Amino acid sequence: MENYAVELKNITKTFGPVVANKNACLNIRHHEILALLGENGSGKTTIMNMLAGIYYPDSGEIYVDGKLVSIKDPKDAFDLGIGMIHQHFKLIDVFTAVENIVLGLEDKEKKNIRYAEKKAREICDRYGFDLDLNMKVHEMNVSQKQTLEIVKTLYRGAEILILDEPTTVLTPQETEKLFNVLRNMREDGKAIVIITHKLHEVLEISDRVTILRKGETIGTVNTAETTAQQLTEMMVGEKIELNIQRDLVEHREKRLEVKNVTVINQEGKKVVNDVTFDLYSGEVLGIAGISGCGQKELLEAIMGLQKCEEGGSIIYNSTAHGVHQLVGLTTKEIIGFGLHLAFVPEDRLGMGLVGNMGMTDNVMLKRYRKGSGPFLHRQQPQATAAKIKDELDVKTPDLEYPVRKLSGGNVQKVLVGREINNKPTVLMTAYATRGLDINTSYAIYNLLNEQKKKGVAVIYVGEDLDVLLGLSDRILVLCEGRVNGILDGRTTTKDEVGLLMTHRKGA
Amino acid sequence: MANKQPLIRITKNDNRPLWQAVIIRAIFIVLALVVSSAFIYSVTKLNPAQIFASMYKGAFGSARRTWITLRDAAFMLIVALALTPAFKMRFWNTGAEGQALIGGLAAGAWMIYFSGKIPTALLIVLMLVSAIAIGALWGFIPGYFKAKYETNETLFTLMMNYIAIQIVEYFVDIWDTKGSHSVGIINMESEIGWLPNLFNNQYVLIVIIALIIMIAIFVYLTFSKHGYEITVIGESVNTAKYAGINVPKVIMRTMALSGAICGIAGFVQVSGISHTVSKGIIGGRGFTSIIVAWLSKLNPFIMTVFSVFLVFLEKGATQIASDFNFNQYASSIVTGIMLLFILASEFFINYNVIFRKKEDR
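YS: structure for the whole thing
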């Protein structure tokens, strides 16, 4: 029997009625990068969290270097040389890199700052990390923070590294840099697990791939012997069409004219900086940018949820509803005017929906004022909810069942369904398919595409460049709150978009 | 480290069926009785059964006692209902004590200055209206500062209690005629400004007022547009903004409502129960009612049950203290044990506790 670095056998983990992992098995080797592939909700992160001591399995066995172990907390994991880099970094903003590295260590020698700086410097040089150890965390960008997390983990003696969706927040260029470092670490004998749902990354970086689906291990294949097609089938279970039919809509009219819009956040930072663009009916305008580049605030400014600074102007124009200046209006007024601006926000249950309410009450969220008298009129929303449930195939026991208990895909169907049902003239979506499985994602893309064909002006804020390139007629790239370029979605390339995302023109 | 599971693991259980929840609660009530019996026996060597019989006697031992228990439960219910809209909005109003007290003061002021000078019916209406108005103001002030300046509502409402207490103390001094720092029973002979008897009973009207407020709050929260706004804000302020709800306005309005109902409670206390004004008339029920509202998970109907239950414990504790020469604090400990177990049962309803399996030891 081969001696694996880590062996997980028949791991089962449930959260109440939700089965996250069911008899899942996988092996990790030294000198190897293993990709853990699966859709969102397939149990990838959960099974690795059990290895890192965040959760404890309901049943099953974990072997490290051939020995049966019990990992009760993250400290146990560290003692076994297992380190995990989570999607959300666990760093103290006001501390420097090296201060974060020694934070929480008990070992006398290791927690000495000067010693740590020297050792961390060695680690950086050895693997090719580009990191300023005396920089404060709040001055770092996402890529630097991630690098720091990895160095921190290595400093603590990790031989087995788990990275949870490390490229989600990175640009293509930063991703390439990360992959180079990972390869160096592999050469050094480390065992590396990279959790991902992006096929091209799997093919590029990994040696082996283990595929999870609905919490179960579907199989493990050698990367060199597989294809994207095979992996997709293993991941999704059925073959699906990966093409979005992108038509060019004739007869377009200018729907929104955004001019010199600036939004300043509570910390006094210009999160949206002098943004100007036009939006036409019958087009999908993709908005690209690394996360936190003002996408959210820009959409919220159009909806009246963010205050625009002096000098900004957002002109709304449609034959049906006339011309309106949106700057200075409240959200209530914008909804009240019946301009039919639909908005699918990033935070579905924290902004778009009320988790503890059922479909009916959520459907009337923007229209509860309708009807006379102090009381609610629930009949109409109830009929609408039933219609949305049928048309979009929302899986819910009944219309009054709390939406927070539905799966992520069904939650999003309720939200998108409500926004589309209101016959929008402008439809803005932020990360509309984040966290959804492929089938639901494609259902959503098709819905957006249909709206565009009907003459709706669609804004699609996305993070997956492949989808942005496949769906958008034009792509607006934001960088540090500014418009860094508007590209033709049919002719541009991923590299071009990626470059504009990171390097501000003229800066 | 070897291969041992942790001794105890805790996992969330969101979907426990009702029958299990009922059984868990029953087990905890039995446990509460057992533990308090053990406590009573170890301290007094008395038969615990006698003690519980005495508690029952204290609360329901005679028709009069039963009515007093119901009266106090009704008062507790009104205050708990007053807190409900605010709590539903996740506005932690800890100022019910002061809001009720200041309302009671307003009612008392009318009785002292205008008894016999205006028609009694008009006097009672003015007492009620002014108690509502000043209670609403007492709730509105922290609501305003929360809405405009994001102040911490828990501390703010708590501080407003002390202001109310000091104002009452000030007026008690002014109104005191005998130099004993107390107002005494107002209109003891004439009973002007007192809530009228209904069916020959002093307290029926109070119970009816509480039940009317209960239905009103239920309807308001469940079927009105205002209630919908409150629920949305309580769930997520961002969602409320997204829906175009004017969040500051709803916060101020709801806090004024919460204070107004506390004002009614203060009026009921002065006009229908104690017929006097002092800093102690609310008697801490402004705080106990927080427990009532919380145990009932803000359900107005279930609040009736817990109001009666908490008043029962209170009356029972007083009774055992006098029956067995028990000191008052020991009986409070019994009450505390009961409450602790009831609260603990909620934890076991919401979470599963898994012990290490035998073979792993």
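YS: worth flagging: The radius of gyration of chain A is 25 Å.
IM: good catch. Also Chain A has a mean pLDDT of 86.
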